Amino acid sequence: MKSKTAGIRIVAASVPGILHTRSNMPCQDYFKHARGRNFVAVVSDGAGSAKFGKIGARIACDTLCDLLKNAPWPQIRDQVVHAVRISRAKLCRHRFNKTKDEHGLADFGATLIGMVYRGGKGMFFHIGDGAGIAFLDDRHDEFVASRPENGSFACETFFYTQQAWLENLRFLDFENAKSVFLMSDGVSSFSFSPDFLKIEKGFTAPINRYLANEPCKQKALRALNNTLNMPKAQRINSDDKTLVWIGLAE
Q1: What is the C-alpha separation between 45 and 61, in angstroms, rounded?
Q2: Residues 204, 201: Cα–Cα separation, whole Å
Q3: What pairing do the DSSP bridges indicate for beta strands 179-183 and 170-175?
Q4: Using CA atoms, how far apart are residues 37 and 120, in angstroms rounded to an integer?
């Protein structure tokens, strides 16, 4: 029997923003994907204000992929909630958590944008900024987008390490997508109009077409890295940049 995740293609890149490069700091973004009965991909952006944001991002991605790849589909939303709780519990026990409880989670602040997929059905799960786009046609006219969510101020967003994480966890279903973009905040500003109501086809469409039609994964990865590292891209947004492209056409 053919696997329900067979034929899925992934090209993913993560590059440090110019501010981190100038300060000789590592990229705080992290991504991971996994296959089982489900396909799972997750992007997490470690908060620049958090001392161990990269650790928070890594633990979330690793845990969500491990626990969701074989999770039962009818309970998939509950399984996402469970996986985030396990991620938080791991951080409570982490050796860098001085209080060894939820009071120390602020040092690991990170956002989440991910998707889980099986047999034509997909679902985004999302906390904070970053974004996900599921393209439903080859013209990029039809799409489902999980948009960024910020707080009362432009520079404020939500993290899975915050006490109110559950009320900020969002789900969005999609079906029969051709491809999916998952991106951190450093890329979402290029992918949407300023009000986030429309997508910027001038950025998303060429990337989607190229990656869908390039058979050599090394060439595709090199092209994606070069795009994210372009001087113009770094000038427009100095944040770390992660883009995960998933080809779903079966």
Answers
A1: 10
A2: 5
A3: unpaired
A4: 13
Q: Could you identify the residue written with the tokens 């990029």?
A: 140
| Rounded Cα gap, residues 128 and 153, in angstroms | 13
Supply the pTM of this predicted model: 0.93
Cβ(46)–Cβ(54) below 8 Å: yes
- The superfamily (CATH) of domain 9-247 is PPM-type phosphatase domain (3.60.40.10)
Each residue's pLDDT expressed in tens, for the chain with a length of 250 residues: 345 666 899 999 999 887 666 666 778 999 999 999 999 999 999 998 899 999 999 999 999 999 999 999 999 999 999 999 999 999 999 999 999 999 999 999 999 999 999 999 999 999 999 999 999 998 899 999 999 998 655 567 999 999 999 999 999 999 999 999 999 999 998 899 888 889 999 999 999 999 999 999 999 999 999 999 887 777 767 789 999 999 996 5
CA atoms within 13 A on the CB side of 161: 30
Give me the phi and psi of 178, to 5 degrees please: -85, -40
The domains of the chain are located at 9-247
